[in-house]
Amino acid sequence: MTGVGRRPGTAGETLTELEHAAAADTGSKDGFGAGAVIACDRLVRIYAVEGIEIQALQGLDLLIRPGELTAVVGASGSGKSTLLNILSGLDRPTAGQVIVAGHDLLLMKGKERLAYRRQTVGFIWQQTGRNLLSYLTAAENVALPMRFAGLGRRPRQARAADLLALLGVADCADRYPAQMSGGEQQCVAIAVALANQPQVVLADEPTGELDTSTAAHVFAALRTANAESGVTVLVVTHDAAVSAHVQRTIAIQDGRTSTEVLRQHRPAHGRGADDGPGTGGADGAEEFAVLDRAGRLQLPRDFTDSLGMRDRVRLALEADHIGVWPGAPNPGLRGENDDSGSHGGGGQHDGGSSHDAGPVAGGGAVTDGSAVTDGSAVTGGSGTRRRGLHRRGAPDMPPVRWQEEK
């Protein structure tokens, strides 16, 4: 990050550098995101398509700690690809805050974004054509980002050879992409992403075009890169089976984080403690619901369906937990003996309930939507028809509230 190593306020430090340093040191004003390499705070992204607004992200919160190997999973349209585009600097959020390795992505200008994508984050895309240039060998592909960063010829050749050896594809150094298998191409793509020693590697469906065996090999390479270099790896995918290969899996639903699965690996006898998931031993996983910064909690659909929960639920604060129960059925409109002042309009007499009940009683026209009273549609009805509703009254409504129009 620009400005690191100088005291804030020293000569030559720009306002942008001070903002970046403050974001890296403290996260948001209330401490959210402090110590995280990726911090998304109430992130919102709204697209306008042919005049229609589409909310891809709806107040998403996300924290990724340095050195984590994490997967973000979700169905098509859940918002995971939008999140990846924002984290990669290719898109801007509509609202909220997103900080990656001390860089506030809302504040960055064009040149800063270019430097951010070149040095701070690395990318692995699903399509190998986006990862590798077909007319360069594996070693040349890995060396290319370092050349753009200004690294000398010998250092970049040495690092390219080291990365290819680390990921088990040293024998592909002089091969072109067309001469490599799909798994080998993706392993070389991981080396390309690591070339400039980024703090974060973002992978978009890196195994989407691979068979199960080859996908496991690629994830083993990602775990090796994560363990050996300490780089933070965030994998975005629709494949829930990926959770077996990472320590933390975050599910996105309707533009917000919904659940997390934390996996702890207990190595088999004779293996080292650094062996990752899927390398032998026992894996223990536990799923958690995510409580976001706004206090929202997404309950699993199978839970709510089994208990018939919908619309309303009852909550109770206990000593060590919060209880959730199905709410009572919709009581509908109350009778005239109800002295609470609430008659379906949801307020006291002077709080607007009489005004709200007007269309239902036939006393006013509905301008948007529809209303039905005692089986009679109110929307678009004639004055005579609405007066008829006045005379009959509405079911379970106090007659004093319903007066005939003059």
Summarize the structure.
With about 400 residues, the chain is an alpha/beta fold. It has helices spanning about 15-25, 80-85, 110-120, 130, 140-150, 155-165, 180-195, 210-230, 300-305, 355-360, 385-390; strands at about 40-50, 50-65, 70-75, 95-100, 105, 120-125, 200-205, 230-235, 250-255, 255-265, 280-290, 315, 320-325, 370-375, 375.
What does this protein structure show overall?
- The chain has 406 residues and is of the alpha/beta class.
- The chain folds into three domains: 66-94 and 109-289, P-loop containing nucleotide triphosphate hydrolases (Rossmann fold), CATH 3.40.50.300; 299-330, no CATH class; 349-401, no CATH class.
- It is built from eleven helices and 15 strands.
- The strands form four sheets. The protein has a seven-stranded mixed sheet, with helices on both faces.
- α5 (138-148) packs across α6 (153-166), α5 (138-148) packs parallel to α7 and α7 (182-194) packs parallel to α8.
- The chain is globular and about 70 Å long.
- The chain starts with 14 loop residues before the first helix and ends in a 14-residue tail after the last helix.
